[in-house]
Amino acid sequence: MSNASNKITTSQTIGPFSHEAWQWAVDACIPGNLKTTGDTVLVTGNIYDGDGAPINDAQIEAWTPIGAALEPEQMIPGFRRVPSGADGEFSLRVSLPQPAVRGEPLMYVTVFARGLVLHQFTAVFLEDDAGLAESTILNQVPEARRATLLARRTGEGQYHWDIRMQGEAETVFFDYA
Amino acid sequence: MKFDPVEPGIYPELIYPAYKSTVKRGPQQPALRIEAPVPTSRNIVAGPHILLPHDTDLTAHGASEPLGEKIVVTGRVVDEDGKPVRNSLVEVWQANSAGRYWHSRDQHAAPLDPNFHGLGKMLTDDDGRYRFVTIKPGPYPWGNHDKAWRPAHIHFSLFGNVYAQRLVTQMYFPSDPLFDYDPIFQSVPDEAARQRLISRFSMEQTVGGEMLGYEFDIVLRGRNATPMGL
């Protein structure tokens, strides 16, 4: 049983002033300097609030546990961090695990922003992954909401995936058991 | 590792109208609780190679001493079983002693201190302990409501030992008169959970003639999947 000394520490908003403190890890994963032995894909997107307005002070983290093995020379293998821009835009170049992703998330994503008092976990899948039907994660998501986790193919090695904090197309966020 | 459901009231309310920015940003759907092996077994690897000199001494970044009250902040990071979270990345950031951040969007009419940027990072040791030296941050106004001032606080970002332990929180200082008026602090319904965000003044950690000591222990989510003794 838990007692007073091991009850979890609660979350608080990241606030609007995290950027300088978080920049070192942003610098460590600049796409142009990416050292990977595998193929990569570029995922671009925007983050929107409940009015559809862009969130311009978010921080997006991505983690690719399988891809990390392809990036031993990266400062933090498999990890990405980017702030959102003026239009809520972000882009993440990540190693594509080989062979094909097969129902695993391309990346696990964590979302932080001012006014978001608890960071939110989500995950991104590629819409053209032939293994989606067997995905252990997607199969736990109500079918009507699965599309919020799929990155749309926009070109060779390029995908688009938006984050919506509220509304009918609210992104599915996870709590892990 | 397994993650028990978080008891109601421990986490802040995602949509808490008194904190205006939550209204359009907090998810309306409850988080979907799922089984996912990877987040409970692996994490990013951040070794000592990421650390820079003086990352743990925020008063050593300028040409001379920063203004304000020099303090040491230390504590242990453990999981819900009380086991140390070892070799785990901790990032901190804060306002200076005048209550201003080294950030382009902070236009509060208080001086920047050229000798204090308020940024640090470190790894916990084998006992889960972290320690850094800094300046006590000042309270500062923000635009949420009339006479909105934040209690003095230090932001903490913790990665834990597995992905799902990730946490961003804030450490407050004892006896701050602003607690009752701060909707960010008050967005946590559970009184005891709020109190756990307040550091403890520590004479033991105080370094005579140099700085006062504060202790702030952090408990990350997660338990060992196998009960002890089995």
UniProtKB/TrEMBL annotation, chain A:
Native organism taxonomy: Bacteria, Pseudomonadati, Pseudomonadota, Betaproteobacteria, Burkholderiales
Keyword Protein transport tagged: no
InterPro entries from the UniProt entry: Intradiol_dOase_core, Intradiol_RC_Dioxygenase
Source species, domain of life: Bacteria
Alphabetical keyword list: Dioxygenase, Oxidoreductase
MF-aspect GO terms: iron ion binding; oxidoreductase activity, acting on single donors with incorporation of molecular oxygen, incorporation of two atoms of oxygen
Species, as recorded: Massilia litorea
Protein's recorded name: Protocatechuate 3,4-dioxygenase
Gene3D superfamilies cross-referenced by the UniProt entry: Aromatic compound dioxygenase (2.60.130.10)
From TrEMBL, chain B:
SUPFAM superfamilies assigned to the protein according to its UniProt record, in alphabetical order: Aromatic compound dioxygenase
Any one Gene Ontology BP term: 3,4-dihydroxybenzoate catabolic process
EC number per UniProt: 1.13.11.3
Entry keyword Oxidoreductase: yes
The entry's keywords: Dioxygenase, Oxidoreductase
Gene3D superfamilies: Aromatic compound dioxygenase (2.60.130.10)
Intradiol ring-cleavage dioxygenases domain segment(s): 73-101
Enzyme class: oxidoreductase
Single annotated GO MF: ferric iron binding
This protein's record includes keyword Oxidoreductase: yes
NCBIfam families, sorted: protocat_beta (TIGR02422)
Family: Belongs to the intradiol ring-cleavage dioxygenase family.
Name recorded for this polypeptide: Protocatechuate 3,4-dioxygenase subunit beta
Organism: Massilia litorea
Gene that this sequence comes from: pcaH
